[in-house]
Amino acid sequence: MARPRSGAMTIPSSIVAADGNLYLHCTMSRYAFQLHISSTQYLDYYRGTVRNVLVRATSGQMVQFPASLLQRFVTPDGIHGDFVLVCDDQNKCLSLQRVPPAD
User: Fold this and answer.
1) How many CB atoms lie within 10 A of CB 85?
2) Torsion of Cα atoms, 57 then 102 then 97 then 74, to 10°
3) Rounded Cα distance, 60 and 1, in Å
4) CB within 8 A of 47, min separation 6: which ones?
């Protein structure tokens, strides 16, 4: 579960029902941030010594999330890049995506 340290930027999520009406489903929070963790540093997360990652989002907010979400992004060089974390209105992590580098 992600825990924002201050107010979150919210994005309404909507559903179009069979009757054609648009309904708000829930409110989602989106946190963009850069991450640079060497492969040596990631070993503490991998071993479970460190269970959470604390990042400063581009909005200035501090956001904490489970380190296990990063596992699929590990390379021999570690974890590097721009990411976006999306959480529901209960601060449950819905997705973590790496943002492709701009060409």
Assistant:
1) 22
2) -100
3) 19
4) none
The H helix count followed by the E strand count for the chain is: 1, 7
Rounded to the nearest 10 degrees, how much is the dihedral formed by the CA atoms of 101, 14, 87, 83? Answer: 0
CA–CA dist 38, 26 (Å, integer): 36
Model pTM?
A: 0.72
Torsion of CA 62, 66, 71, 75, to 10 degrees: 30
Strand partners, 29: 10, 87
Tokens for 77, please give them: 């060089």
Rounded distance between C-alpha atoms, residue 28 and residue 26, angstroms: 6
Give CA–CA dist 74/79, Å, rounded: 5
Model confidence over 45-96: pLDDT tens digits?
888 898 999 999 999 999 999 999 999 999 999 999 999 999 988 888 899 9
pLDDT of residue 4: 47
